[in-house]
Structure to design on (222 residues):
């Protein structure tokens, strides 16, 4: 069965540095999402992406964050000037169309030191 | 106030027991997901439903749109069912999910 793959599985970064989290969605999917889960808390929506542009973003997704689909297969989340509170598990999800379930990657655990 | 509430927060069951996890939501939705999160953190979609009932193996999900309530049932529970079960809704025409806090299920042999 096709999978959403995320790399790296774990990223450790010094505060203030930039990180790029990578996702390869399922190949024929059209809708892409980033979510995050701070340890011990519920999963929160960050941003959705469709037709090469952001379709919706949450209050969390401020100027520190950006997303890109650089080559038609990868879907990346960039976090600039990382802060301690950015430490979380980040999940990518993709969806074929609006009537199908979202498929999640295994997540990237981001630790900011 | 959380838009998606789940109960119970934690649930311990003996192998073989019938399990019910409840989800209530306060917003208009177009669909509801039940998801399973394993201890390693990965999330798997179990069901997506907008009305009625769906069944997959030992899992059954129901939704009552009028009452804004959904249930996930596990029949003949097994230790491998131990995980966090998360209810998440899609609000209106927006595609993003709004998550509940999850129910941590432990099934003892």
């Amino acid at each position: 069965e096709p999978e959403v793959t995320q790399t790296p599985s774990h990223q450790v970064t010094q505060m203030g540095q930039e990180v790029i989290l990578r996702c390869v969605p399922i190949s024929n999917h059209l809708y892409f999402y980033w979510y995050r889960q701070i340890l011990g808390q519920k999963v929160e929506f960050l941003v959705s992406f469709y037709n090469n542009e952001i379709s919706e973003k949450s209050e969390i997704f401020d100027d520190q964050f950006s997303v890109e689909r650089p080559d038609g297969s990868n879907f990346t989340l960039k976090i600039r000037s990382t802060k301690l509170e950015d430490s979380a598990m980040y999940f990518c999800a993709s969806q074929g169309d609006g009537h199908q379930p979202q498929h999640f990657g295994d997540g990237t655990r981001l630790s900011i030191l | 106030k959380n838009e998606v509430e789940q109960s119970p927060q934690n649930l311990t069951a003996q192998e073989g027991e019938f399990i019910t996890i409840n989800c209530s939501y306060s917003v208009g939705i177009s669909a509801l997901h039940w998801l399973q999160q394993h201890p390693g953190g990965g999330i798997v979609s179990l069901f997506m439903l907008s009305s009625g009932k769906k069944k997959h193996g030992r899992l059954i999900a129901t939704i009552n749109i009028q009452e804004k309530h959904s249930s996930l049932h596990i029949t003949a529970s097994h230790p491998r069912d131990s995980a966090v079960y998360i209810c998440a809704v899609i609000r209106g025409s927006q595609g993003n999910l709004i998550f509940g806090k999850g129910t941590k299920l432990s099934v003892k042999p």
User: Anything to note?
Assistant: Residues 67 and 77 of chain A are 5 Å apart (CA to CA). Chain A touches chain B at residues 31, 33, 35, 37, 41-45, 48, 50, 55-56, 58, 89, 91, 95, 98-107, 109 (CB under 8 Å). Chain A has a mean pLDDT of 93. DSSP finds no helices and eleven strands in chain A.
